[in-house]
Design a protein that fits this description.
The protein is an alpha/beta fold. It has nine helices and six strands; from the N terminus they run βαβαβαβαααβαβαα. The chain has a domain of 165 residues: Alpha/Beta hydrolase fold, catalytic domain (Rossmann fold, 3-Layer(aba) Sandwich). The chain is globular and about 45 Å long.
Amino acid sequence: METIILLPSLAATNRTWRRQVDTLGADHSVLAPDLPGHGSSPGPFTLERAVADVTGLIDDVPGPVHLVGLSLSATVAVLACLARPGRLDSLVLSGGIAAPPPALAVQRAVATLLPGRVMARLAAGLLAPALGGLPERERARLVGEATEDFRAVGRRTYLDALRELARTDLRPRLGEVATPTLVLCGSRDKANLRGARELADGIPRARLEIVPGVGHLWHLEQPELFSRTVGDFVRENRH
């Protein structure tokens, strides 16, 4: 059976993929590990540790493997792909960046100044409007879980991850990615549109899709569409 590995975003745990695990799990083996310093995975967070965890998981999986990275974990996914050339059957990168954007410095400065509980409230305040199309009960559950995860991850891990991103430029190595790659970005995710285009331009076998009407965490906004998009690409690259 084909295996899909779903990597969560910064300050999220594997439960962020609940809907995708249920949907994609009907036809595939689905794994959703936590990043270091998140959920059940001990910290501290470094990209090196995150990549080691993911490549270890890839090494343990028999048969075809498809890797999905979201936001921070899009960077992890690219580095894991480079560490295991030829091992992945497909790569999906959503809301990722190829190099640190100017906005990242602002994000780090704000995170340095604010207490963790305040950052958690701000994150929840940004997420809630994006989920306005969901039923009220589901929206409240997702916002509550995201707030809990953010608080549990904590300020140190959050800052560690931002620091790692700030010193990582993937562009010199993107040409080495030989895996068929789908680069995704929500049309409302303005901060990451440039990064998505840089990823797609740099990876030789990449296809870019800008998803209309959704934002950064559109796997929560439109879970069925996200699952269908990933599932279709996996089937397209099934061996």
